[in-house]
Amino acid sequence: MGEPNNGIVLYHYSFSPVARRVLWYLSLRGIDYAECKQPPVLPRPDLSRLNIRYRRIPLCAIGRDIYCDSRIILRKLEELFPNSTLSASTPDEKVIEKLLEVWNMESSVFSRASQLIPTSMPLLNDPKFTKDREDYSGRSWSKEKIAANRPEALAAIRSAFSILETTFLADGREWLLKTDQPKLADIEAIWTFDWLNGLKGALPKELISDKQYPKVFAWITRFNDALKAAKAKAPKPASLIGDAAAEQILNASFVDKDLGVDPSDPLGLQQGTEVEVFPIDSGSHHHDQGRLIGLTEDEIVLGIEANGKELRLHYPRTGFRIIAATGKAQPKL
């Protein structure tokens, strides 16, 4: 793309299970990028520099286009960096890839997995962390509430392990699409289970281990071996502090195409309307406000201003809400 590190700046923190989806993708494809590490809790001044209120991690800037939510990040990396070695190769495989994304991200699999965080985790003794996560999730993060939710969450996750064991992996295949290397479909499926496997105390060994689900745990091991080999070959990401990351982004060009606003959209919004956009499942207290410059059945694009420059924030349509702006309007550019 003619810009440092392909114009990519990934905002994340090291133990975010959702951010690992994107980190794995970049490593397995060997794509050069820069990263700007963030604290696990608010505030995040690095993002405030860009006038971004969206609070979830990861975010990925490619040029002056900033993608919010890992689903759209992976989709745009596939589009903007073609000839992907991770892409599904047939329509049937693409369907499986998409259904696995929805299964983990939009159904209850990850939300139930997050309820298996062990009450012994040191961060649960930090009031700043628990208050932040209550703001993020809209539910109590008291140890008592976590313990009360655990039996139902454990039942749901056992069922999810069983689905993988007895369907996709039942015939002994190494990867979900019967390929000779992991694909995006594997990333879409494995991230929740790999995260739980590495979270000490989350999974009771008498119920969920390689004894009950040998094919799933062998798949997790294969994936981590493949990832380790890919990381050894991939470019090491540049590490940027907040000021440097913001400068690189603000001085870049836009990379994505103009979508326009679909006139048949049920909301009936006009291009240029001042709106607020926010996720409806988590982090919903944090609204970005700006000019609506793109709206399709798959994507929302919001124009905002930061330091006199226009940025474009991109969101998936699913899981996000658009409302008329109620605060001070963003300056017109």
TrEMBL record:
Residues 6-85 form the GST N-terminal domain. Transmembrane segments: none annotated. It comes from the Eukaryota. It holds the Pfam family DUF7962. This is GST N-terminal domain-containing protein.
